Structure formats: structure tokens, C-alpha cells
Amino acid sequence: MASHKNQHFVPRCYLKPFTRDGAGQAINLLNLDRQVLIENAPVKHQCSGNFFYGQDLTIERDLQHIEGAYAASLVDVLREGHPLAERTKDLLRAFWLVQFVRTDAASRRTAEMSNGFAAHTGIPEDYRLSIRQAVQMSMTLLGEVLPFVMDLKVCLFRNRTPVPFVTSDDPAILTNRWHLHDERTRWRSIGLGKAGALFLLPLSPAVMCVCYDGDVYSIPHRNGWARVERAEDVRAFNEHQFLNCLANVYYQDWPGRTYMLEESARLASLRPAQRYRIHLAVLDREQDGYERYRVVQHLSDEAGSKVLIHSESIPMHPTAWPSVIGWRPQGVAYTNRTARGYIRRAQAEALGFGGFHKVRIR
Fold first, then answer.
1. Residues β-bridged to residue 30
2. What's the rounded Cα separation, in Å, for the pair 90 and 149?
3. What is the pTM assigned to this prediction?
């Protein structure tokens, strides 16, 4: 049992390519909260906690299977000229999802959102989620969520610039350039099944994995590979790690510390203090079979009213987007003009296309 006590939420096999000489023992990091650079920090102490997934080790053992498959595949993935096979694409999509839901940062967001609801509804403290409970709950739902990511296309980018890709303690990025810029999607979620989804995961200082909605974006590639030849594009990819991380950004070469400090200072004001907002509305009046709700700040004076509670995720807004991810000519999304918003074809198909129709995105 003691050998399984220290459980990593970012696995060592993932961090290894970013470690000193790729040896998997020591890694350089910048702690954003304290603005402290640490050289050669032991990898075994990074992104881990005692029994983070519980003491029965069920989740820990399940994770070892996908981590082992990822580590074995990574040897080929990082090799120059290796074609990207379909089974590898499936593994990378699944690994991204596992990493997206398993980190301390993800668990904190889930717990804070749940407890935000609790605070507004008066649920007793005993029923509120701890961080450990939040991650365990998320991990048990992986099988249900996996179909929402398997339709995305996968491309690996080879970094041909002197600026390396960096990673962090929350490296699996969910973003959506289209949703963040189109007026039709204003105030809507950028969830896993939405049109325009972009999943980013740096695999090494030289390789970036991008999973993308092929009906919205276009990436010219050969055998699943594309090149990044502009340092500005690498910096645009790296911005997501600085904006999304909980506390630490990791990088391989100690001479790169100046770049790390400069980027941290430049992006500090863009890191939100919280990652969600809770909105409250109470029943104002009923007329002709319709209900009208009024937004309020607190429920204390509204006892007995019907209440709507809405949680709004606060997305990260980078200052630039990689030019290597282009727009699909005549790109499309699917909508039924309800609160479900704009989704991808695969999600509409899973719902039987009931009421959904195709719309142009640009």
C-alpha cells in the first residue's frame, strides 16, 4: 500500500519528455503564485498527492493501464517521420480526456462549482464535495464522456523553432476559438461536444497534439503531422499553459527561464481569479402560461420562490491563436435553437438529428 500512497494527477510518463535530458528525474518549473523559478525539481514530487484517487487503489490501477499504453506509444510518436496511426489517434484522444478530468485543478473547479451551488441553496456542509471526492466522481464518468471526444480529428505539430513547447500542472486544454469570437455563441459553454472544440496537449518541447473539429478548422498535414515554423505560433500555444495552470508551468531547458518570467508577467492580468460564476434568478411573474424570472444577488429575501441557478464557466482568452490552425472553408455547426447551443455533427447524429439543422459558422 505504501508504494501507491503518492498518486500523480499528471503522470511521470507524461512529464518525462520535459525533464532534464529527458531522463525523467528532474524538471525546471516556474511557480506563478510566487513568481519563483526552481531548477531541477524532483519529478516524483510534482503534481501528486497522498491517495489522491482514494485508498482502495481502483482508480489508480485503472490509470496505470492507459498510462502504460501512452508511455509505450510515445516512443514512436516522438520519433521523427513516424506516421500517425488511427489507433494512436484514439489513444491520444482518450489520454487527453483522462488528463483533462484527473488533475488537482480540474477537481478544485468541480468542487468549487458544486459548493457554489450548495452555498446558494443552503445545502448542509456534510453534503458538499471535497477535492478528492470531486476527482473520484469525475473519473467514474469517463466512460460516459469518452464518446464526446472520439469524433475529433487529431494532428501532431513538430516544433521547428527555437522556442520550446512548455507544459503545466493542468496541461490538457479545452478551448474554442470560434465560440470565443462569434456573437451567436456569446454566454454559451465551450463544452466537450460543442462545435469548434479545440483540445491541446503538449507531448514534448518539440511536439504538440491538437484534437479539433474538422467542420470548423482546417490543418494541412501529411500522415497526421504538420510543422510549426514561427516562434509566435509556439508562444500562442504556450499561452494556454500559462493561463490554464493551477500554479506551476514546466519547461526543459534552464536557459529558457527569462522567457518564462516574461510570459508570466505579460499574461498575469489575464488569469481570472475564479473559473466560474453562479447566477441566480427567482420567479417574478407568470402570464399566459409563461414564467418570467428576475436576476437577484442573494436568495435570503426570496424564500418560497421558484429559483433558477446557472453556472457560467469563465473561459481563458489568449492574446493570439496559432496561425497553423486555419478556418475550414464553408465551416458548419449544428443547432436546434435551444439552450443546447451549437454542437458538432457527431453529437447531433447521436441525438437522431431531432430538430437540429446545419448552419454556416462564418
1. 37, 249
2. 9
3. 0.84
Mean pLDDT of 208-218: 98
Distances, alpha carbon 92 to alpha carbons 52, 89, 95, 300, 347, in Å: 23, 5, 5, 47, 20
Report the alpha-carbon distance of residue 30 to residue 35 in Å, rounded.
Answer: 7
pLDDT confidence tier of residue 310, bands split at 50, 70 and 90: low
Q: Where are the alpha helices (DSSP H) in the chain?
A: 12-15, 58-77, 86-102, 104-121, 131-140, 142-145, 177-181, 231-244, 257-267, 345-350
Please state, in angstroms and rounded to a whole number, the distance separating the CA atoms of residues 129 and 110: 8
Place 287 in a pLDDT band, splitting at 50, 70 and 90: confident
Buried-exposed string 219-240: b where 16+ CB fall within 10 A, e elsewhere: bebeebbbebeeeebbbbbbbb
Question: How many whole angstroms separate alpha carbon 83 and alpha carbon 93?
Answer: 16
Kindly tell me if the per-residue pLDDT of 15 is higher than 50.
yes
> Quick one: average pLDDT of 119-127?
52
- CA 316 to CA 122: how far, in whole Å? 30
- The residues that bridge with 148 in the sheet, in sequence order, are none
Contact 82, 74 (CB under 8 A): no
- Quick one: pLDDT at residue 166? 98
Give helix 131-140 / helix 86-102 axis angle, nearest 10°: 150
Q: Is 301 left (phi over 0), alpha (psi -120 to 50) or beta?
A: alpha
Q: Which three cell numbers stand for residue 213?
A: 473539429
Strands 248-251 and 207-212: unpaired
Q: Could you give the CA distance from residue 267 to residue 254 in angstroms, rounded to a whole number?
A: 21
CB atoms within 10 A of CB 288: 4
pLDDT tens column, 79-116? 887 899 999 999 999 999 988 887 644 555 554 545 45
Determine the average pLDDT of the residues in 37-50: 84
CA dist., res. 212 & res. 223, Å (int)? 16
